[in-house]
Amino acid sequence: MALKIKEIIDKASTHFTKRFCFFVISLFISAIGFNLLDKPNNIVTGGTSGLSIIVNHLFNIEPSTFIIVASILFIILGFIFLGFNKTIKSIVGALLFPIFIKATSDISTYITLNNISLFLISIYSGVISGITTGIIIKQNFSSGATQIIYQIINKYFKISLGNAIFIANILVISISCIIFGLSTSLYGVISLYISSLITDKIILGISDNKTFLIITSKDKEIKEIITKQLKHNLTIIDTINTHP
Predict the structure, then answer these.
(1) Exposure string (b/e) for 87-115, b if CB count within 10 Å is 16 or more?
(2) Rounded to an integer, what distance in angstroms lies between the CA atom of residue 22 and that of residue 141?
(3) What are 121-172's pLDDT values in tens digits?
């Protein structure tokens, strides 16, 4: 029995280590994409990284400095308004990301993309952001403290999480439009759109066919909604609850 428990613990530990490695690598690649593509071209796609580009342009404050200060502030707000459990998941990403931003801040001096159009750069930025964000979320981690703000908006303003993210990012992009001009901000919109598409594909999978498992005591009501409103088929399986 003790051996079996040890095997389960070892498997769980290995699984967590694998997920954490994917998380860290994705976060590092995301930081490279920011310093190589977004920052040199003022491509603002929202979040603290987008705000850091605006603040850097206006006040010459290093993006890594702004992101770490903003992250600490958001974490404090998270503990106050969301509680410990919902905030703790964002701490590692919130602290690692600005460190990676600082570590890769000089990459654009070694790799130059002067001959590539802004349109292509915005596409590359969206692809990298979408892949890394999708992997991070799929590993059940958070890429930064901005998620805390999205959750606060969702909780206290009764706005869906998707709409909260959209509203927050649109506000940041609107500011970039004022600072950098309409044409530059549009490249941010292109990058954000591509990123959101790829993120969804990674999280949900490439196939259009999806299976959902719904555990409920209101089977008749659920059946009514799925068959008549959503126009989909379903399979009903009787189960026995063994939870005490």
Answers:
(1) beebbbbbbbbbebbbebbebbeeeeeee
(2) 10
(3) 999 999 999 999 889 888 888 777 787 888 888 888 887 766 777 788 888 9
